Please model this.
Amino acid sequence: MKEKLTESLEKYLLAVYEIVKMNKAARVKDVANYLKIGVPATSDAIKTLSERKYINYQPYGIITITLKGKRYTETKIQRHKILTDFFVNILKIDEKKAGENAKIMEYSVSADVLERFTKYLEFMNKCSCKEPKWVKSFQYYTEYEKMQPKCTKCMKNKDTFDNSKCCGCGG
Model:
């Protein structure tokens, strides 16, 4: 299992990643300025990330990101994007709120559950079926607080429900 960083250390690693992506390297003061945080706190975080082999750093030298750091960061960015896209495109939550809640979810759900959930969402995005019919039915339900008439027909007789005659709403 991947070593999980604290939210604070991830913030520093993401800043290093962005700065290195633009400038090929960074310095502690660059990271501090990027995050609008003091140099001493930034220096401590940089040392910790270096000790854990996410970045290359020597005191008063430049900072580069290791392969481990790059993989961790890119996975983190991709996971955040997947969650945000789900909130925006399926649940129809505004983008700012979606991003904020994706971040909260990333730190409040256990790593294995988050991994499984994001894998499911990634699968749904890549699936050749594109958008299952139940997604539109769900969106209708959230907007109007009732099932679509076609879904109601599918669900009417649950005891004699015949999946082959369902409209595909998930009923």
Summary: The chain has eight helices and two strands. Residues 1 and 9 are 18 Å apart (CA to CA). The mean pLDDT is 87.
